[in-house]
Amino acid sequence: MTPVETSAREAGDPHDVQGLPPLPASLQARLADCHTLPSLPAAVAKVLMVARRTDASLFEYAAAIEADPALTLRLLALANSVFYARHRGEANSCREAVSRIGLDATLAAVMSFGLSPSGRAEGLDLDAIWQRAIIAALAARHLADRLCPEHAGTLFTIALLQDIGILAAEALDGDAYTALIRATDSHDALCQAERERYGCDHARLGAWLAVSWGVPQHLASGIAESHGELEATSPDMLCLRLSGQIADGWLTQTPGRAFGRLIRRLETRQELSLAAFEEILDELQAQLPSMAELLEITRPPQRDSHELLAEAKRHLFMQTLTLGARLDAHQVELEALRERYAELERSSRLDPLTGLANRAWLEQQLEERFHHSREHGKSLAVVFIDLDHFKQLNDRHGHQLGDRVLANFAASLQKMVREGDLAGRYGGEEFLVILPDERVAGAEAMARRLAERLASHPMAEVDGAPLHVSVSIGIACLGDTDFRNARELIDAADQGMYQAKRNGRGGAQRFTPRA
Ligand SMILES: Nc1nc2c(ncn2[C@@H]2O[C@H](COP(=O)(O)OP(=O)(O)OP(=O)(O)O)[C@@H](O)[C@H]2O)c(=O)[nH]1
């Protein structure tokens, strides 16, 4: 956190945090009218006045605190607590106490005294709020000791005060706000609900309140930014934001799951190893009881860091398994979809009755092959086949038999074409075969073979008697004539076929351009 300059502002709410956008105007107006906002005892305010000066000495801090005996006692208790006393002797004066615990922690202790759980706001669970605050404050300090020691004291104070905005929101809205807390199942969800209701969350509101008390601006802007994403933040911001999330995980009914999620979120941050995280949790557990005692709040639940992280890893493992299983299922689904798509695509090219290429596919293929043959100076033959007297066949034997004949004819045709050729149904009883690299002679040979086959193989049986069909065939060839496009080539083969019909059916006729 970069300390924010405390120069006077020209306009706007004097309690705004410099460097941050102002609070929504309607909220500012309501805050200005609210007479129940939490305030600080005079002694605390005096200490804050000292803290606002960058050149304030230890002596001045001590002097401000000594003016209030209760505050002095609280500070001495803190300096002599397990956390600060370690192997040192007893601190007997306010000055000794301030020197031992440092200016930041002194400020935090003084502030927490001013906002002690014995204060007002009966609708709120102040005990829970302070539990979160002290866990976060200690976590922030220990995280900072590892990641940015120069900010450890400041972060302790900010983390401790990060939720004071809840006090302001409760003062504004009373039961409606406490109902909002009850309706949300996590701190994140509460922030989101606040943003929807007030246009900002309690962190931002807390920063405003802090400035109104005279808390130094850099602490206030820290409070404003204390809630948010862990990714892509500076190390000090990571310590601060993580501190609140550690506190939430610590206090939840399912800490293993919460810490599992936290570890996953931290995966992108290399600075903090799992071993360091476990040490921090150990330190937290060691210090929380005395801190809770000092603030006269209920002790937060006891957590065994080793067990906690083992459970967190179990959750992560289960989550990975579930994700893996889901991924597998998705892959199977994707494969099935791919197959289905390929099948659809394949069937979209086929004629359903005969299983041969349909007209659209024939035309598209001919188009491509036509251009390819032209470009490479190759020949390309098209054979147009029309079954003779098919109407008569239908009329005599019925449509179903007609269908069977078409299907059997298609199967025979398919057997006669070579790899690289394409046979398809062009329409009704019309068929087309594309013969790449083939000249008229090759196409005529194919027509002959087809006629022979039809003569020797009946296409159906009627009352035990074989039913033979004949076809009329038209042939056109790129190479013989200079067709401009595939359409012209088909039309030419069609004309050849009509000529074959006119010649008496059952034969093949090559296209001959009129002179
Ligand atoms: N069973 C059946 N008949 C079809 C199908 N498609 C077209 N036809 C019939 O094929 C017949 C074609 O008749 P025409 O075009 O008059 O030709 P044709 O009777 O074969 O006479 P020519 O071609 O002159 O030898 C029509 O009666 C169509 O109803 C089909 O999918 N199934």
Structure report:
This protein has 515 residues and is of the alpha+beta class. Among the domains are: 37-114, no CATH class; 163-225, no CATH class; 359-510, 2-Layer Sandwich (Alpha-Beta Plaits), CATH 3.30.70. Mean pLDDT is 87; it is low at 1-11. Strands 2-3-1-6-7 form a 5-stranded mixed sheet, sandwiched between helices. The longest helix is centred in the middle third of the chain and has 44 residues, at 305-348. The protein starts with 24 loop residues before the first helix and ends in a 5-residue tail after the last strand. The chain has helices at residues 25-33, 42-52, 58-66, 69-79, 82-85, 94-114, 126-147, 152-161, 164-173, 175-183, 187-198, 202-213, 217-224, 235-251, 255-266, 274-294, 305-348, 359-375, 390-397, 399-416, 440-456, 486-502, and strands at residues 380-387, 422-427, 430-436, 460-462, 465-467, 471-478, 508-510. Helix 14 packs antiparallel against helix 15 (255-266) and helix 20 packs across helix 21 (440-456). Guanosine-5'-triphosphate (GTP) is lined by residues 353, 386-392, 394, 399, 402-403, 406, 428-429, 501, 505.
